[in-house]
Amino acid sequence: MQALKGRITAFVEQALNSDLVYVFENVIFQQILNELMRTMDCDEQQMTDYILEVEQILSPLNPLIFYLYPDDLIGQINKVALERVSDNYELYPDWIDWMVEYLKNSEYGRIHKVSDREDLMIYFDKRRSIEEKCFGRLRSNKEKVYVDRMDYDEENAYIYSKL
Protein backbone atom coordinates (compact mmCIF):
# COMPACT_ATOMS: atom_id res chain seq x y z
CA MET A 1 0.00 0.00 0.00
CA GLN A 2 2.88 2.33 0.73
CA ALA A 3 4.44 1.59 -2.67
CA LEU A 4 1.19 2.44 -4.43
CA LYS A 5 0.85 5.71 -2.52
CA GLY A 6 4.45 6.49 -3.52
CA ARG A 7 3.65 5.91 -7.20
CA ILE A 8 0.55 8.10 -6.97
CA THR A 9 2.55 10.83 -5.23
CA ALA A 10 5.18 10.69 -7.99
CA PHE A 11 2.42 10.91 -10.61
CA VAL A 12 0.91 13.97 -8.94
CA GLU A 13 4.30 15.69 -8.76
CA GLN A 14 4.87 15.03 -12.47
CA ALA A 15 1.31 16.04 -13.42
CA LEU A 16 1.59 19.35 -11.58
CA ASN A 17 4.51 20.22 -13.87
CA SER A 18 2.64 19.64 -17.12
CA ASP A 19 -0.17 21.27 -19.04
CA LEU A 20 -1.96 17.98 -19.63
CA VAL A 21 -5.49 17.32 -18.40
CA TYR A 22 -6.04 13.99 -16.72
CA VAL A 23 -9.46 12.36 -16.64
CA PHE A 24 -10.03 10.08 -13.68
CA GLU A 25 -12.84 7.66 -13.49
CA ASN A 26 -13.55 5.66 -10.39
CA VAL A 27 -11.56 2.77 -11.87
CA ILE A 28 -8.51 4.13 -10.07
CA PHE A 29 -10.28 3.38 -6.80
CA GLN A 30 -11.88 0.21 -8.15
CA GLN A 31 -8.46 -1.22 -8.94
CA ILE A 32 -7.16 -0.31 -5.50
CA LEU A 33 -10.22 -1.81 -3.80
CA ASN A 34 -9.86 -4.90 -5.93
CA GLU A 35 -6.29 -5.41 -4.76
CA LEU A 36 -7.13 -4.69 -1.12
CA MET A 37 -10.02 -7.17 -1.21
CA ARG A 38 -8.20 -9.86 -3.19
CA THR A 39 -4.81 -9.84 -1.54
CA MET A 40 -5.33 -8.51 1.95
CA ASP A 41 -8.99 -9.22 2.69
CA CYS A 42 -9.18 -5.79 4.37
CA ASP A 43 -12.35 -4.70 6.09
CA GLU A 44 -14.51 -1.92 4.65
CA GLN A 45 -13.23 0.75 7.02
CA GLN A 46 -9.60 0.03 6.15
CA MET A 47 -10.40 0.18 2.45
CA THR A 48 -12.36 3.41 2.77
CA ASP A 49 -9.59 5.01 4.81
CA TYR A 50 -7.03 4.02 2.21
CA ILE A 51 -9.11 5.43 -0.66
CA LEU A 52 -9.48 8.70 1.24
CA GLU A 53 -5.68 8.81 1.68
CA VAL A 54 -5.24 8.34 -2.08
CA GLU A 55 -7.80 11.06 -2.73
CA GLN A 56 -5.80 13.39 -0.47
CA ILE A 57 -2.65 12.65 -2.49
CA LEU A 58 -4.55 13.46 -5.71
CA SER A 59 -6.14 16.62 -4.32
CA PRO A 60 -3.49 19.09 -5.64
CA LEU A 61 -4.68 18.12 -9.14
CA ASN A 62 -8.22 19.23 -8.25
CA PRO A 63 -9.62 16.07 -9.85
CA LEU A 64 -13.11 15.51 -11.15
CA ILE A 65 -13.78 11.85 -10.46
CA PHE A 66 -16.36 9.95 -12.48
CA TYR A 67 -17.99 6.88 -10.97
CA LEU A 68 -19.16 4.59 -13.76
CA TYR A 69 -22.10 3.03 -11.98
CA PRO A 70 -24.17 0.16 -13.39
CA ASP A 71 -27.79 0.04 -12.18
CA ASP A 72 -27.80 -3.62 -13.20
CA LEU A 73 -24.45 -5.04 -12.08
CA ILE A 74 -25.15 -8.55 -13.36
CA GLY A 75 -26.26 -7.17 -16.72
CA GLN A 76 -23.13 -5.03 -16.95
CA ILE A 77 -20.85 -7.95 -16.09
CA ASN A 78 -22.64 -10.13 -18.64
CA LYS A 79 -22.23 -7.35 -21.25
CA VAL A 80 -18.49 -7.18 -20.59
CA ALA A 81 -18.26 -10.98 -20.63
CA LEU A 82 -19.89 -11.08 -24.07
CA GLU A 83 -17.50 -8.41 -25.35
CA ARG A 84 -14.42 -10.18 -24.03
CA VAL A 85 -14.84 -13.66 -25.44
CA SER A 86 -11.63 -15.44 -26.36
CA ASP A 87 -10.99 -16.04 -30.01
CA ASN A 88 -8.82 -19.02 -29.02
CA TYR A 89 -9.95 -20.56 -25.75
CA GLU A 90 -7.09 -23.06 -25.80
CA LEU A 91 -4.58 -20.18 -25.65
CA TYR A 92 -6.46 -18.05 -23.16
CA PRO A 93 -9.92 -18.27 -21.57
CA ASP A 94 -12.84 -15.92 -21.86
CA TRP A 95 -12.54 -12.90 -19.57
CA ILE A 96 -15.25 -14.14 -17.20
CA ASP A 97 -13.56 -17.52 -16.75
CA TRP A 98 -10.21 -15.86 -16.25
CA MET A 99 -11.77 -13.61 -13.59
CA VAL A 100 -13.13 -16.62 -11.70
CA GLU A 101 -9.65 -18.22 -11.67
CA TYR A 102 -7.99 -14.91 -10.79
CA LEU A 103 -10.29 -14.49 -7.79
CA LYS A 104 -10.26 -18.17 -6.83
CA ASN A 105 -6.46 -18.13 -6.53
CA SER A 106 -6.37 -15.01 -4.34
CA GLU A 107 -6.41 -14.64 -0.57
CA TYR A 108 -10.05 -13.53 -0.82
CA GLY A 109 -10.85 -16.58 -2.96
CA ARG A 110 -9.31 -18.97 -0.47
CA ILE A 111 -10.99 -17.35 2.54
CA HIS A 112 -14.41 -17.12 0.86
CA LYS A 113 -14.11 -20.42 -1.04
CA VAL A 114 -14.67 -18.92 -4.49
CA SER A 115 -15.34 -21.62 -7.06
CA ASP A 116 -17.63 -20.33 -9.82
CA ARG A 117 -19.25 -17.39 -11.59
CA GLU A 118 -21.88 -17.02 -8.89
CA ASP A 119 -19.13 -16.47 -6.31
CA LEU A 120 -17.53 -13.95 -8.68
CA MET A 121 -20.81 -12.03 -8.86
CA ILE A 122 -21.00 -11.97 -5.06
CA TYR A 123 -17.50 -10.51 -5.03
CA PHE A 124 -18.39 -7.86 -7.65
CA ASP A 125 -21.51 -6.92 -5.70
CA LYS A 126 -19.51 -6.59 -2.46
CA ARG A 127 -16.89 -4.48 -4.21
CA ARG A 128 -19.56 -2.23 -5.72
CA SER A 129 -21.08 -1.71 -2.27
CA ILE A 130 -17.70 -0.62 -0.92
CA GLU A 131 -17.09 1.56 -4.00
CA GLU A 132 -20.38 3.36 -3.35
CA LYS A 133 -19.47 4.00 0.27
CA CYS A 134 -16.04 5.28 -0.71
CA PHE A 135 -17.45 7.44 -3.50
CA GLY A 136 -19.96 8.96 -1.11
CA ARG A 137 -17.14 9.99 1.23
CA LEU A 138 -14.91 11.55 -1.43
CA ARG A 139 -14.44 15.29 -1.01
CA SER A 140 -13.26 15.90 -4.59
CA ASN A 141 -15.52 17.05 -7.39
CA LYS A 142 -17.34 13.94 -8.44
CA GLU A 143 -19.96 12.78 -10.87
CA LYS A 144 -21.92 9.51 -10.94
CA VAL A 145 -22.44 8.20 -14.48
CA TYR A 146 -25.15 5.55 -14.91
CA VAL A 147 -23.55 3.31 -17.52
CA ASP A 148 -26.55 1.07 -18.15
CA ARG A 149 -28.25 4.00 -19.86
CA MET A 150 -25.62 4.65 -22.54
CA ASP A 151 -23.07 2.97 -24.76
CA TYR A 152 -19.32 3.60 -24.53
CA ASP A 153 -19.35 6.48 -27.01
CA GLU A 154 -22.14 8.20 -25.10
CA GLU A 155 -20.27 7.65 -21.81
CA ASN A 156 -17.13 9.23 -23.22
CA ALA A 157 -19.03 12.15 -24.75
CA TYR A 158 -20.81 12.76 -21.45
CA ILE A 159 -17.55 12.72 -19.49
CA TYR A 160 -15.82 15.05 -21.95
CA SER A 161 -18.77 17.44 -21.81
CA LYS A 162 -18.19 17.83 -18.06
CA LEU A 163 -14.55 18.84 -18.45
Provide an overview of this structure:
- α2 (27-40) packs across α7 (117-137) and α3 packs across α7 (117-137).
- The radius of gyration is 17 Å and the shape is globular.
- The mean pLDDT is 90.
- The chain is mostly helical and 163 residues long.
- It has helices at residues 2-15, 27-40, 44-58, 73-83, 95-104, 107-112, 117-137, 152-161; strands at residues 24-25, 64-69, 141-146.
- The chain has a 3-stranded parallel β-sheet, sandwiched between helices.
- What is the overall shape? globular
Taking pLDDT < 50 over at least 5 consecutive residues as the criterion, the unreliable ranges are none
How many alpha or pi helices? 8
Strand order of the largest sheet: 1-2-3
The major β-sheet equals:
3 strands, parallel
Average pLDDT across residues?
Answer: 90
Query: What's the N-to-C terminus distance?
Result: 30 Å
Report the portion of residues in β strands.
5-15%
Helix content: 55-70%
Structural class: mainly alpha
